[in-house]
Amino acid sequence: MDMITYAGHAAGAIEPPHALRDRIAHTISRLARAHRARRDFDALRNASDHILEDIGLTRSQLTSALNSPFWVDPSVKLASSRNRRRR
User: Fold this and answer.
1) The domain containing residue 56 runs over which residues?
2) In-domain check, residue 13
3) How far apart (Å, rounded) are the C-alpha atoms in residues 50 and 52?
4) Angle at Cα 57 formed by Cα 26 and Cα 74, nearest 5°?
5) Which InterPro entries does the record associate with it (predicted)?
């Protein structure tokens, strides 16, 4: 039988249940944010090069951001590539 601590968790538990719940919620939130950004970026695929230029993007940057895995927010990938170019 497990010894219960004052917080109601088994003694020696690696991670309290709320920490696991928070990590799962954070992961789901990140996936949802990446999905929304990917959908928005995907809509830009049909934009003309002139419009992309007006918002400061090239078609190759857009394609590169959208080629990242589904769990990666393409806007984060685009921002990191911009930061590397500025250095």
Assistant:
1) 36-86
2) no
3) 5
4) 20
5) YjiS-like
Does residue 48 lie in a domain region?
Answer: yes
Tokens 């984060």 -> residue:
76
**15: alpha, beta or left, given left = phi > 0 and alpha = psi -120 to 50?**
beta
Report how far residue 58's alpha carbon sits from residue 9's, in angstroms, rounded to the nearest whole number. Answer: 53
Name the token pair of 6: 């004052």
The tokens describing 81, both together, are 């590539």
The answer to the question of residue 49 being in a domain is: yes
Residue 57 resides in a domain? yes
- pLDDT, one tens digit for every residue, the chain (87 residues): 445 555 555 555 565 678 888 999 999 999 999 999 889 888 888 899 999 999 888 888 888 888 988 888 888 888 877 666 565
Domain count along the chain: 1
Q: Which two tokens stand for residue 60?
A: 């190759």
